[in-house]
Amino acid sequence: MKAITLGYDRNPAPRVEYGIRLLKEALQDCGYTVLEAEAPWTWDNYRSVPGLKIYAGNRLESELLQQLEQRDVLLYHTEAPEGEGFYMASCPGSLTAVSGGSDSGVLYGCLELAHRVRAARKLPSDIAYGDAPRFSLRGPAIGLQKTTVEPPRQTYEYPITPGRFPWFYDRALWRDFLDMMVEQRCNVVYLWSGHPFSSLVKLEDYPEALEVTQEELALNAETFRWLTEEADRRGIWVVLKFYNIHIPLPFAEKHGLKLHQPKPLPITSDYYKKSIAAFVKSFPNAGMMVCLGEALQGQIYGVEWFNETIIAGLLEGLQDSNVKEKPPIILRSHAIEPQKVIEAALPLYPNLYTEAKYNGESLTTYTPRGKWQETHNRLGSLQTIHIVNVHILANLEPFRYGAPSFIQKCMQAAKYRLKASGLHLYPLFFWDWPYAPDRAEPRLRQLDRDWIWFAAWFRYAWNPDRDPEAERHYWAETLGERFGGREAGEAILDAYEASGECAPKLLRRFGITEGNRQTMSLGMTMSQLTNPERHMPWPDLWESQSPQGERLEEYVVKELVGEPHVGETPTDIIADAQRHADEAVEAIERARTLVTRNRDDFERLAGDMAAIRHMVQAYAHKVRAAILILTYKHSVKGEYFHRLDLLEEADAQLEQSLAGYRELTALTEKTYMFANSMQTPQRKVPIRGGLDFRHWTDCLPVYEAELNSFRSHLNELKSGTLPEALKNAKAPIVPYREAPFKLLSANAEVYRVEKGMEVFTDGDIHIVGCAEELNGLTGIRFSQRQAGLNGLAVDIELQQPSKVLIGYFNSKDEQWLQVPSLEENTHADDRGGYAPVLRKGLRLYAYPSVNIHAFQYETGRHTLDFGKGAYLILGVIPADQDVRPRDVEHKNDGIDTLDWLYE
């Protein structure tokens, strides 16, 4: 048995010590007797140690490495190691040197040498190899979140307790996860919570803010401290993410405040500052990720809150700390323009980062473009490190995803198209961590099920520019080791690669949104395909998160008039998706006879390949039906008894689509518990209600009813009968009833909503026309200038449950208040009113048209504070008032959309 001596500096840093341990274990497993150097080595005495020697150290601190460099004994043929970089060199005197640019660099160098020892079953000779990560931050996000809301708390709000999150206290799970992370060379783990401080620290000044028992607090602090120390040993930052301004429920109740605050108050600022200071004192090895959007009106108060509260609290907490590296603060660009915040904060705290979503809340393309690319490039140009956030993955849920070449291109796009140098990766089923959605007892861990998801992203976060041919060999070998041989590995890799194209292509051409409002695998209704405007589509999906191409109706119109097509067309995508899905199933079947290990995992993967093909088939035939129906719409132009042959063809396509969906439902009923990990009311596509419509079995009856309705109306048309919806097109429009209210604000006044009335207290902009429903209601007007520049809040008192009618201008100009979106604000629909009830319900002289939304409020006093931008308050109506959504400008109640065909 050969002996080998390990040398390193006395009292090594935890990361160096951990790297030495990994290297020592690899050497021992390969038959070496490992000795430890008894005394520090110098350039002129290390040769006196007999036999093979390895020395690992931080070149910024190690005297031996500095001496060898000065004497040209240790030379670098690559860049000299800096930061997390390392260099391994075979030096004279039987010495292998591992030179790290930092403690983390030493760790990664030891990890690389350990890999090589295990692969060769011996210590390799003649090593000269340097490497360094291309991305500065690389790691996964884990949610301290639940799949459903716990009233009276709101979304994201979950105190940390063993009952809610037993996995948080599971140290064996954490060790497995952290070991996977260090194996993949991750250096950060992001923990997401709404407001974690009330579960981790207790404040003398605000004892009422504590949301857990004293025993739970002690357990949380002990667990979190252990976690940060274990992570630090592996070169990993723990970064705690929180929303602003979210406050604890007992704190809110005591002080008469709402759980989510739109602007700073002296008491909330003082509470947060002291919470952050206490947190940093207790856990100096943890960083923070700050979301200034959603609840907080970040465009107005972001600089103030970030500098005067968050950074001030952090600096106070660090005063007596002797941490080697200051913790990172990451500013999320969600629902805020972070540039002015960063510019104001950099003089106070230099270790700042920015973060923005990669493809929204889905995975759609490796060529992001448009304004979202511009946003990333702008953030990447700041004096900070910019991170891409691969977020939620609502179009991939719940199936396995492991297409290495697609992921590699995404990381190349992150580097070159988006100018990013950090990765923040969500698991595939974020809201139900650590469990996978598969039907299995015991439940599968995402860590195990989705190993290739994590491995591919982090491999290419370290270096996205690896040779594609070599990468195919690498992944075929890796899969082969797992499933039983190179041939099996190649076939399974082909299945992963082909299936990985399906969901991205389908969503980007036909989806409503790239956000988690839509669960793509559950399908879409015909109305969502043929009349997406009704369902509040998110234009970023096709303007930024997709290659150039055409939406369905645009494609049909061009076809009818003979115009040339540009970019991806719906028919292109359907053909591609079907080809990819067929190739995936063929490849997985090719692997079936070759698999000799992990058979259960393989069968589950094969089930996913079959499910994806059924999903693609359901989409393909439904899209073809949509093309036929839109062709009918633009051909008959209101003469609905003409061209019924198009509808008959659509009927056949819908029947095939439903057949595919039934196959998908039958399969997933056996294999999956649910399709989406977040089962809250924010899920609206294909059907409102994430809890009630979370499985294909829940949605199948909706699609069956849709086809039955379509056939019924088609038969009516074929028999010469006008469908009821068309008969009712001229149904009388009923004015809204008024609900009593009291205006409490001195900076506003009431007025009668009718033609000729001025809608602001400054200027002379008057109503040119308004929907009959609004005529005669009592509106509230105020200064347009003040609302446009700074935002303006209005206080009212309601005598009964009511709906407040808010008018949003149809313009993206920053002077106008923008409609809240679920893509940017999870609470956008908490009071209903997400979709307009009257499109273009008000016309003003020389101003954009106005959409009317109805927000629900309970009896009592309310502050209407929507943020910066001018808007209108057009009346208060009873909560039970029936409101029929319609497009006022066309005055046809949406008949031309053809939604009546399926409803």
Quick recap of the structure?
This is Alpha glucuronidase N-terminal domain-containing protein. It contains 26 helices and 25 strands.
Description:
The protein has 903 residues and is of the alpha/beta class. The chain has 26 helices and 25 strands. The protein has an eight-stranded parallel beta barrel. A six-stranded mixed β-sheet has the order 2-1-3-5-4-6, covered by helices on one side. Strands 17, 20, 21, 22, 24 and 25 form a six-stranded mixed β-sheet that branches. Helix 1 packs parallel to helix 3, helix 4 runs parallel beside helix 6 and helix 16 (486-499) runs antiparallel to helix 21 (570-592). It is globular, with a radius of gyration of 30 Å. The model has no long low-confidence stretch (mean pLDDT 94). This is Alpha glucuronidase N-terminal domain-containing protein. It comes from Paenibacillus sedimenti. InterPro entries: GH.
For this entry, give a set of tags.
six-stranded mixed beta sheet, 903 residues, 25 strands, GH, Alpha glucuronidase N-terminal domain-containing protein, globular, 26 helices, 15% strand
Proportion of residues in β-strands: 5-15%
Taking the alpha carbons of the first and last residues, their distance comes to 79 Å
Main β-sheet description = 8 strands, parallel, barrel
Outline type: globular
Output the strand order for the largest sheet. 7-8-9-10-11-12-13-14
Work out the helicity level. Answer: 25-40%
Number of helices: 26
Structural class by SSE content? alpha/beta
Supply Rg.
30 Å
Count of strand segments = 25
Q: Could you name the ranges where pLDDT drops below 50 across 5 or more consecutive residues? A: none
